[in-house]
């Protein structure tokens, strides 16, 4: 596999160790436990593409700030979302992570980094690994805007949009020349892992600042309750990043940033002989199956205040993202499949805000073009046969272009009523130079384009400490390169072939929400329903291929997802607080099969879940107890029933997880955290995942500022 990654990991680890050795006091960092977030506080959000105060927005938004990221040290971005209502984090492999947001995942959820679309045209419709390929150490905050956002971001913003903001240099909080940084260590007995992060922050106050760092991660095999070490689940990862902010003139700032992440030999254990069966799941017969990933994002951003009519704030961003994925799969009979794809995505966007008044107006455009190349080679060493396929996991010599113009108007009607309307016109075009015809297997090409008009309408009414809002949103998803031309294994018993006759799918969502925001008590409830129109679903073709059931996609399904989310937070004393949430989801699809139409649950629908946390906090130390509950996930689709390597035949058992965590500021520049997780030593896996999670284990973190 990619031997260069071994050297990259070692170099990152050495740089991190050098940073730890050089940690000397330069600027004291005030480190302390985070105050509980409250929607009644002026929390500013940017995930709706216009800076706004959360308490004024008719959206269901969850915010994970820097203090929470610093405290919890999540392994991946998806795992940082574990306790957010409406979210279930599925992991086919330990190095992967796919958040299910209000019942949707994969290419029906959207991630943006500093306002830049992260999704690309190779995303699968089901669970995928790509959200786990962002280094959490680079982030200042995570915002989850639940529900449809196609009016703002275009295709794929269906279940929710994750808006990530990277950490900026400290130039606006300093005077004169400055230099500082941090060293972070994280260790866990649950997977015998060690993580090291070294970052530096330097510049001249008010003029320029640079922040950069390297991260090295070495994950061992998972230690699961009742099963012990789960072999063939460890992997390595390294990341590097840098961000330069320059003040060009009063009111104008330029940002230049780059980030890269490498994953080396991430095993997809469930399909191999090493898989440990759980509740009558079965092990696969692959001898090995590993993935390598390299992704990078480079961008330049101009942000300023022109101070003109209809142009009070302006942000222009030019970005380029590259990704390379390579998978080596050795079948049980010794056959080797090596497949890969390369993606190169260039994008330009501009967002403007008009001067504030009775109405707030935001508008802009975005353009992107992506090139995709893929390859696959099958080798049979016993027969001495080497066969190069027409394509890899997706079509070869492909391109995918998106363009959109959008606008949003917020209108205040007195002190209590607020109306918001958004509209976007999108156009998507796809071209595939070569892919395998689903019937003949011969080389074929494709060209297609689609247009869409998406919108949203929301109204919020405030009475004292109560807020009530209702909203409607139309989202869409255009078929991407993976939908149109995918070839390869799907679920445990299925193989997918190309589907070049697809059109867009659309989603209509209605939501009704209520919030009470008192000084010591906050309560919230949201109810929503989403209609699925022309839904793209994989259906059997009636043929067998390579010993597997052949499936292809069609715009042939329709259905609905219904959900309820409840939240509560209480300040019991000045130091003690209690918070919790609960999620109920139900979803079904009506889709064609070889025997006619069938109505069944949506695949991997989230079971009934609840989270409860009790926190005690002082200036220099804190304690926290967490309880996470999940019911049995036994609403299974026909595809779930066939996915015997990941989903037990009677459904995934429920579980109760109890954890304790503590943090203490040892000195002005040293903070330590210690967590005892899964204290009940529960043997469990998240619904749809390929391995069990760790049993009872210890996680420790140490942070030095210098």
UniProtKB/TrEMBL annotation:
Endpoints of the signal sequence: 1-28
Gene3D superfamilies for this protein: TonB-dependent receptor, beta-barrel domain, TonB-dependent receptor, plug domain
Domain of life of the organism encoding this protein: Bacteria
Topology relative to the membrane: Multi-pass membrane protein
Subcellular location: Cell outer membrane
Occurrences of domain TonB-dependent receptor-like beta-barrel (ranges): 232-679
Chain ranges for the short sequence motif TonB C-terminal box as given in the UniProt record: 689-706
Keyword Repressor: no
Residues annotated as domain TonB-dependent receptor plug: 55-161
Pfam family membership, one: Plug
InterPro entries listed in its UniProt record: Beta-barrel_TonB, Beta-barrel_TonB_sf, Plug_dom, Plug_dom_sf, TonB-dep_rcpt-like, TonB_rcpt_CS
Main location: membrane
Protein keywords: Cell outer membrane, Membrane, Receptor, Signal, TonB box, Transmembrane, Transmembrane beta strand, Transport
Classification via PANTHER family: HEMOGLOBIN AND HEMOGLOBIN-HAPTOGLOBIN-BINDING PROTEIN 1-RELATED (PTHR30069:SF29), TONB-DEPENDENT OUTER MEMBRANE RECEPTOR (PTHR30069)
Record-stated family: Belongs to the TonB-dependent receptor family.
Name under which the protein is recorded: TonB-dependent receptor
Species the sequence originates in: Qipengyuania aurantiaca
């Amino acid at each position: 596999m990619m031997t260069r990654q071994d050297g990259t990991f070692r170099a990152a680890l050495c740089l991190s160790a050098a940073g730890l050795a050089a940690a000397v006091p330069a600027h004291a960092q005030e480190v302390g436990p985070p105050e509980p977030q409250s929607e009644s506080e002026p929390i500013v959000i940017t995930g709706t593409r216009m800076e706004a105060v959360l308490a004024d927005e008719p959206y269901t938004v969850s915010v994970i700030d820097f203090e929470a990221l610093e405290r919890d040290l999540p392994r991946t971005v998806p795992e940082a979302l574990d306790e957010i209502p409406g979210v279930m984090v599925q992991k086919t492999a330990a190095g992967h992570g796919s958040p299910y947001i209000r019942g949707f995942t994969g290419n029906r959820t959207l991630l943006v980094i500093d306002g830049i679309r992260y999704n690309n045209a190779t995303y699968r419709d089901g669970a995928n690994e790509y959200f786990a390929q962002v280094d959490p150490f680079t982030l200042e905050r995570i915002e989850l805007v639940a529900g449809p956002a196609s009016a703002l971001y275009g295709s794929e913003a269906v279940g929710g949009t994750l808006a990530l903001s990277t950490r900026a240099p400290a130039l606006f909080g300093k005077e004169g020349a400055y230099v500082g940084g941090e060293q972070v260590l994280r260790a866990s007995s649950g997977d015998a892992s060690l993580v090291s992060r070294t970052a530096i922050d330097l510049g001249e106050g008010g003029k320029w600042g640079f922040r950069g760092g390297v991260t090295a991660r070495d994950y061992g095999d998972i230690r699961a309750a009742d099963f012990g070490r789960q072999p063939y689940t460890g992997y390595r990862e390294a990341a590097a990043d840098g961000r330069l902010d320059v003040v060009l003139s009063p009111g104008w700032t330029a940002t230049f940033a780059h980030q890269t992440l490498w994953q080396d030999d991430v095993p997809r254990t469930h399909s191999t002989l090493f898989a440990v069966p759980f509740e009558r799941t079965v092990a696969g017969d692959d001898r090995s199956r590993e993935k390598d990933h390299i992704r990078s994002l480079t961008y330049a951003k101009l942000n300023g205040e022109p101070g003109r009519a209809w142009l009070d704030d302006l942000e222009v961003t030019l970005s380029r993202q590259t990704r390379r994925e390579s998978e080596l799969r050795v079948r049980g009979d010794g056959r080797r499949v090596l497949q890969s794809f390369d993606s190169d995505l260039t994008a330009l966007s501009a967002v403007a805000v008009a001067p504030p008044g009775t109405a707030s107006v935001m508008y802009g455009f975005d353009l992107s073009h992506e090139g995709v190349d893929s390859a696959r080679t099958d080798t049979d060493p016993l027969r001495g046969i080497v066969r190069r396929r027409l394509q890899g996991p997706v079509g070869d010599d492909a391109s995918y272009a998106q363009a959109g113009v959008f606008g949003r108007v917020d209108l205040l009607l007195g002190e209590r009523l607020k109306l918001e309307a958004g509209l976007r016109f999108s156009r998507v075009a796809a071209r595939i130079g070569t892919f395998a015809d689903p019937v003949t297997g011969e080389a074929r090409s494709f060209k297609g384009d689609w247009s869409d008009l998406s919108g949203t309408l929301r109204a919020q009414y405030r009475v004292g400490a109560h807020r009530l809002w209702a909203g409607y949103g139309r989202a869409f998803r255009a078929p991407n390169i993976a939908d149109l031309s995918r070839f390869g294994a799907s679920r445990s018993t299925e193989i997918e072939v190309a589907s070049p006759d697809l059109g867009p799918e659309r989603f209509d969502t209605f939501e009704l929400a209520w919030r009470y925001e008192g000084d010591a008590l906050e309560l919230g409830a949201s109810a929503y329903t989403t209609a699925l129109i022309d839904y793209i679903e994989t259906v059997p073709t009636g043929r067998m291929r390579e010993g597997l059931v052949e499936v292809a996609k069609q715009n042939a399904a329709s259905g609905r997802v219904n959900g309820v989310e409840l939240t509560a937070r209480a300040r019991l004393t000045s130091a003690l607080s209690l918070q919790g949430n609960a999620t109920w989801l139900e979803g079904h699809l009506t889709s064609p099969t070889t025997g006619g139409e069938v109505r069944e649950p949506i695949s991997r629908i989230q079971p009934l879940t609840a989270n409860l946390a009790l926190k005690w906090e002082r200036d220099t130390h804190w304690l926290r107890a967490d309880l996470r509950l999940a019911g049995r996930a036994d609403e299974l689709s026909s595809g779930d029933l066939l996915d015997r390597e990941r989903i037990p035949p009677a459904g995934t058992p429920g579980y109760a997880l109890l954890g304790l965590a503590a943090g203490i500021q040892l000195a002005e520049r040293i903070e330590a955290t210690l967590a005892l997780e899964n204290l009940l030593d529960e043997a469990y896996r998240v619904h749809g995942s390929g391995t069990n999670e760790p049993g009872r284990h210890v996680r420790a973190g140490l942070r030095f500022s210098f």
